[in-house]
Every structure is written in C-alpha cells, then in structure tokens.
Amino acid sequence: MRLTWLIKPGELTLKGGNRKSFEAVLKRNLQTMLSGRDVQIVLHNGRFYLHTSEHDQAAVEGALSRLMGISGWAQTRSLPKTIEAVTAACVEEGKKLIAQGIAAFKIEARRTDKSFPHDSFALRCSCGQAVLDGVPGLKVDVHQPGAVIYIEIREKAYIYSDAHKGLGGLPVGTAGRGLLLLSGGIDSPVAGFFMASRGMGIDAVHFHAYPYTSAEARQKTVRLAEIIGGYCMGIRLYIVGFTKVQMRIKESAPPPWATVLLRMAMMDCAEKIARKIKSKCLITGESLSQVASQTIENLSCTENIVTLPVLRPLIGMDKDSIIRKAEQIGTYSTSIEPYQDCCVLFSPPHPILRGDPAEAITLYESLELEPLIEEALREYETVKCGYPLT
Ligand code: ATP
Ligand code: MG
Predict the structure, then answer these.
(1) What pLDDT was estimated at residue 98?
(2) Which candidate, 229, 364, 354, places its Cα nearest to that of 299?
(3) Distance CA 162, CA 160 (A)
(4) Which residue has the CA at smallest separation from atom 23 of ligand 1?
(5) pTM for the full model?
(6) Which among 70, 142, 292, 333 could bridge 166 via Cys, Cβ 3.0 to 4.6 Å?
(7) Based on the number of CB atoms within 10 Å of its own CB, is 362 exposed (0-12), middle (13-18) or buried (19 or more)?
(8) pLDDT average, residue stretch 154-166
(9) What's the gap in Å between 389 CA and the centre of ligand 1?
(10) Based on the structure, what is the number of domains in the chain?
(11) How large is the C-alpha radius of gyration of the chain?
(12) Across-strand partners of 75?
C-alpha cells in the first residue's frame, strides 16, 4: 500500500522572490534523507506531499522529525472531494482514536478549494456528528481534546489526526556553511543544531590530546557528529591532534592563562581549516560566564585571534535550557559519557577571569605555536558523519 504524507513548510513561506529556491533545497534534503527508497515528492500550492511505500513508514517518520525548515507533518488519507468520502474517513479516524484510548476529539476543517459545496463550519458540524454517531464512547471536547481530526479540502480531500510539529527553521543548505568547534561536551552539539536550524551547513573540528585523552573520547565525538549530521545533511568532522600545542602552553605560559591561550590556539587552527574548506564562520558552544574562559573579557581574547565571524548561538542560554535542548535532539546521553576532554586535563586551578586582549595576543605570540599548528594541520583526520557526503 502507498502512504501519503503532508508536509507544511515553515519560515520559508515568508520568503518572497526566492521562495522557490528554498523549496528546492527542502525537497533535495528530503530526497537525500530518503535516498534508496521508493518515494515521490510533489509540491502543490506551498505544501509538499510525499508518497511512499508503507514499508518505509519508520524511515519517513525518522527523516521528517529531523528535517529543518518544516512547521509540521502528518501521514494523511488522500481522498476524492466528496462529502461522503470525507465523512467516512472522519469516522475511520474516530475509530482509530478510540482504539488508542483517546476519549475526546474535535474537528478542524479548512476549505482552500472554495468550489467545494460545504464550508468549514458545515464540515465541522456534519463530520463531527457522523463521528459521534459512528464511534460509541468518543465525545467532543473543543477546549481539551485528546486528539484533533483535521479536514483539508485542497486539490484533494486530506483527513488526518496524527499531526506532528516540525523542527521549524530553514532548510539546511540555504545559509552557507560554518565550522563548529565540537568538544565532547553538552554545549557544542546543541550550538551546531541551532545553526543548522537557521539553514547553515555544518562541518566540525575536534581537538584531541592523545594519549592524554582516550580513543573513547574521540569515538564519543564521532557519535555526537553522527547525531548532528542527521539534522544537517551530513558533517565532515576534522580530528586534529593538539598534544604538542597543549604541552607548549602548559610548559611556557603563565598557568592562569592556559585555558584562554588554548582556546585562542583552537580558534586560530579552526580558522585555517575554515578558510581551506570555504566555511564562512566559526561556531562555538560558549555561553556568557558559564565558566571562567567565557567571561566577556576572555571571549574577546579568543575572538581577537581570528577575523572570521564567531557565532555563539548559546551565548544567552542558561545550562538547564541547553541540557533540555540536548535531550530533545538526542545528544545529551552521549555528551555525559565520562571520557575527558583535552581542556579539562590541562585546566589550571586558578584561571584568569578577565584577560586583557592585548596581553593575550602578546602571550600567544610569545609561545610560537605557529609551526605546531601547521604540523597539526598536515596530519588531521577526516570522518564523514551522518548522511553520505560527496
Ligand atoms: P562543551 O564542551 O559542550 O562545549 P563546555 O561548557 O565544556 O561545553 P568549554 O569546554 O569551555 O565548554 O568549551 C567552550 C567551547 O570551545 C566549546 O563549546 C567548543 O565549541 C569549543 N571547544 C572546547 N573544547 C574543544 C575541543 N576539544 N575541540 C573542539 N572544540 C572545543
Ligand atoms: Mg567542554
């Protein structure tokens, strides 16, 4: 049996002349997510209709729940526009609801095709009554229904009750690419997700300090990139060995400055990768004053070392909200696995709280990290995560 899915685009409906290009990217992303499956995607009056085999139901649900740029989606009945067909379908939906233990419903009707002889009020009344008559035990509750049966009269009649909210935002691939500094922690994967939800394609760089950090810590970061890659049509993860850089900082820098100088080195190195792969910005999971290295003064120190824009989508969020988002997007349980990140191992006991940016640059230059960064850049590893990338 073929299934039909109705997909409502989100913010892109506000676009003017370039709406078509946003729709084309959305369609291409969905095709990529479901590649190798028997699917057909049709755009009709601003809505997408996806036709699939019922065997692909789970895959379609997985894809639609990770697709950026849509406000909602539902598996729907697709029927000829007759009142008889619509009424019978509503009764079938009602039977489904009662079988799921739902006791109260309401009907929402929308008639886009004004040539259909029943307006939305008449549809609500007649179909609601038919459901009450045909499904004993089911009641109407317009204020707190257990479920809503939707009727949409468009080029066909669409009836559905299992409506899902989409992720919103814009289709990935409509806002350039950014390079995410991905640690193994809670924040940076969430930062990547937020930028992807604005349509940005994401690549990521992870710095490790083997043998001070373990192979498990590296694997954990790869798994985080896999999860985020599932939302942003794939991530190229660059894994860079930073042991020599960290050792130089530990041996030669004033201890309170160690973390800020390490962040500067990460930014410096990340920017070099970003320029090579034509990323337009750097993305971090920093949040104002969350830790000593993220005071406004210390953020100035780390930002001063680069010229690309540094985007920090979590800057105004508190930790609880970040954790809730991490749980929603499925990265939290991986992020809290106990493998240590390179920063933790080298953190000084009394970090500087308000570094002076000019002093930071002088200290940074005195460390002569350039050759060590160049060496790290000759040896990095690339892992493709999420969807296959060309
Ligand atoms: P998280 O580790 O999830 O980002 P955090 O609160 O532990 O959160 P910090 O360790 O202070 O944050 O790091 C700040 C930011 O610097 C991170 O969000 C990330 O963008 C970047 N970063 C830190 N460590 C690394 C690393 N090993 N590799 C790449 N980026 C890193
Ligand atoms: Mg961290």
Answers:
(1) 96
(2) 354
(3) 6
(4) 183
(5) 0.94
(6) 70
(7) exposed
(8) 97
(9) 25
(10) 2
(11) 26
(12) 5
